[in-house]
Specification:
By secondary structure, the chain is mainly alpha-helical. The chain contains 8 helices and 3 strands. Helix 1 packs parallel to helix 3 and helix 2 packs antiparallel against helix 3.
Length: 230
């Protein structure tokens, strides 16, 4: 699809209706007219989802369901003239929007589709932002996570349990077990400093450093004092 003035205006209008609806200020008659006259002429699934969310927030569930259906049908669309648009961005954004109006069925279907678009080497800024919003929405709707560490339940973990591995734990095998009903995903962060300075390394070139007096003479670094110029 190529962008033209009509597409841009309608995408903008859909987003404006969504923003106004969140504040309870959207004109419902205008919103219904937009749905009835233009929703199927807007190729962007995200724009359709913005209008759908606005309709749901304003209480028109029937039109909202129809608009969400049309948005879901359009997932996968590609706009060559919009660098930030992608199927991944649209699906992630629609998950966050569906969560705002408790459309769990759509969330479940889109979450299943999202796997098809992940695994890219590079994500643009809108993809990253909407993935974070989708993850936050899914986390809010998730149940408590129950993890055991060597058989002992990790207390006070809530939905985002974490544990810091001690030197003693790392010296032996540590077993983590998902004691809950649903799947869990893990991330590992490692930080520290080496005990010894790394050896010198040359990869195509070498560097040497020497410290001299301003006249070029040798310097005894053990004798350097504050304000000496080297």
């Amino acid at each position: 699809y190529a962008d033209n003035q009509e597409h841009l205006r309608r995408r903008t209008a859909a987003y404006a209706f969504y923003v106004l609806a969140r504040a309870g200020r959207a004109d419902l008659s205008d919103l219904r007219y937009f749905h009835d006259s233009f929703i199927d002429k807007v190729p962007s699934p995200l724009a359709r989802a913005h209008a759908a969310t606005a309709l749901a927030l304003m209480g028109d569930r029937a039109r909202a369901a129809n608009a969400f259906g049309l948005a879901e049908e359009a997932v996968g669309y590609s706009n060559r003239e919009n660098y930030y648009q992608s199927a991944l961005r649209d699906a992630a954004a629609m998950i966050a929007l569906a969560a705002e109006v408790d459309n769990q069925d759509l969330i479940d279907r889109l979450t299943g589709q999202l796997d098809n678009y992940l695994g890219k080497e590079y994500y643009n800024t809108q993809e990253k932002a909407f993935l974070l919003l989708a993850a936050a929405a899914l986390l809010d709707r998730a149940g408590e996570v129950e993890i055991t560490v060597d058989g002992a339940t990790l207390r006070g973990s809530g939905k985002k349990p974490s544990v810091e591995l001690t030197r003693q734990m790392l010296a032996r095998d540590v077993t983590f077990t998902n004691a809950g009903a649903g799947p869990v995903f893990r991330s590992v962060a490692v930080h520290g400093a080496p005990e010894d300075a790394p050896p010198a390394e040359a990869s195509g070139f070498t560097l040497q450093k020497s410290i001299r007096t301003l006249q070029g003479g040798a310097v005894d670094l053990s004798q350097v004092r504050q304000n000496d110029r080297l």
